[in-house]
């Protein structure tokens, strides 16, 4: 049961995460001000923020049992005015039943998720 719930939570998370990244990317292409995404690992959430004073536009809370490591992805996640990710890399997410890597490559491509092992 936990494995199924865990998989559903991850699918919901990755869908929202990708939508938020696309929102940031599109906003940075079409506006002079920029948005970025940062993680607060202690509070199990990520935030979409406006640059400057960091006004919070949106927050997403993920399950407290998860461990997210920035691995090779430099935070905050932000895009250039041309839509390219500024510091590509990988996030590692450890859920109750699985490990995932979210890779954000060079260029305008979106991030993709890969399951690497199960418990």
Shape: globular
The domain count comes to: 1
Give me the strand/helix succession. Answer: HEEEEEEEE
How would a textbook summarize the main sheet? 4 strands, antiparallel
Radius of gyration: 14 Å
The fraction of residues in strands falls at 35-45%
Q: What would the average pLDDT be, to the nearest integer?
A: 91
The helix/strand class is: alpha+beta
Strand order, biggest sheet? 3-2-1-5
Query: Number of helical runs?
Result: 1
| End-to-end separation | 13 Å
Could you tell me the number of beta strands? 8
Describe it for me?
The chain has 119 residues and is an alpha+beta fold. It has one domain. The protein is 24% helix and 36% strand. The protein has a four-stranded antiparallel beta sheet with strand order 3-2-1-5, covered by helices on one side. A hairpin with a 4-residue loop joins strand 1 and strand 2. 18% of the residues are buried.
Structure characteristics:
single chain, 119 residues, alpha+beta, four-stranded antiparallel beta sheet, 24% helix
Outline of this structure?
The chain is α+β, with helices and mostly antiparallel strands and 119 residues long. The chain contains one helix and eight strands, in the order H-E-E-E-E-E-E-E-E.
């Amino acid at each position: 049961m936990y494995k199924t719930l865990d998989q559903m939570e991850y699918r919901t998370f990755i869908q929202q995460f990708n939508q938020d990244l696309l929102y940031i990317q599109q906003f940075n292409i079409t506006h002079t001000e920029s948005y970025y995404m940062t993680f607060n690992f202690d509070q199990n959430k990520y935030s979409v923020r406006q640059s400057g004073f960091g006004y919070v536009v949106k927050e997403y809370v993920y399950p407290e049992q998860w461990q997210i490591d920035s691995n090779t992805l430099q935070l905050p996640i932000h895009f250039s005015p041309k839509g390219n990710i500024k510091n590509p890399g990988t996030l590692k997410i450890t859920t109750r039943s699985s490990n995932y890597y979210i890779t954000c490559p060079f260029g305008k491509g979106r991030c993709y998720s890969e399951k690497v092992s199960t418990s």
